[in-house]
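Quick illustration for those who missed Monday's session on complexes.
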Amino acid sequence: MPKATEATVIASISNNSSESKHARSIALWAMLSMEWPEPIQRVQCIAESGIQCLPSRYIRPDDEKPIGHRVVEEEIPIIDLSGLCDERRRKTMEEISSACRVWGFFHVINHGISPEHLVAGSEVSREFFRLPLEEKQKHANDPVTYVGYGSRIGVQKGATLDWGDYYFHHFLPLSIREEHRWPSKPEDYRTRMKEYCEGTLELCKTLLSVFSENLGLPQDYIKESFGNDEDIGICVRINYYPVCPQPELTYGLSPHSDPGGITVLLQNDVVGLQVRKGNYWVPVRPVSNALTINLGDQIEILTNGIYKSVEHSCVVNKEKERMSIVVFCNPNGEKEVGPIKKLINASSPPRYGQMTFNEYRKFIRTTGTKGKSYVNSTKQFR
Ligand SMILES: O=C(O)CCC(=O)C(=O)O
Ligand SMILES: [Fe+2]
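Prediction with 2-oxoglutaric acid bound:
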């Protein structure tokens, strides 16, 4: 297999020929078989050492610093999902349709997951990051599967890093759940997280059927494009953003769109998430007992761009650590995803090519977060 360089990967994402797509695929594979390019340092350890100045590898270039963001205080929609079950159904469906088209981001309340399960999921996640370093290190992850305790996304040597640690693992399909790779402490982590994931799975199924109906498709259409009940993808990423001595110079998570289908976010009460709206950014303020939904690249591709994945980023702060539990609902990794045929016609030709989700997600796992560059690079121009 040819040896990939960072340059070949970067060059191939901005070129759209079929040879280049093939080259991109080979390059991404080759890079993924690598180790992390530099020794991993835990951001939590750096923060707890009491440093006053940010180490240079976390400082973004001037034109990428969050202080360059124009931030506008708007509210993303809050949608009461209990309305789907009574006479408000039509109105609620319309609210979801409008939120998907205008924002790609919305809060949901009365989403079916009890406040107790939200609290339990948050607590076990928080407790994991309170464990001694040696305990967390037992689960250190690698750049091939990403499963475990991690501190970077992407394997580009010398890349500017984000100010955050995370834990990533799968819930579905069962064949890749590998529960022994979930945190073993706190002791009730696995039970609590399973309950939380079961709840989010039901929520995602409901949303996928609403999206289908709103787009004039049979109710199960998008869900079945993700896989059947056993092989749909559900994975968890717990993000931990320690306090930061110079938050104006870095991100907890730099701008990106999520590569998958639907993202369900539970954040603690510290504001940090921002969503891009045109040329400005809107803070996503936590709403009590709500979950925040955002659309990922696979929904943009399946809907042929009718719904768009939306760029977002997280800023950090000097006083308070921030945490989020993110559940990603994705197409099964082996399933080819492309624009849904029923959404294509003469005036709306296919705008994206076909690719399996496993192949697609190699991009972010290789180059790290890069705005919406990958989904844009898969567009077919006619
Ligand atoms: O921490 C957050 O609020 C967002 C996290 C996120 O965007 C992600 O994990 O993809
Ligand atoms: Fe994200």
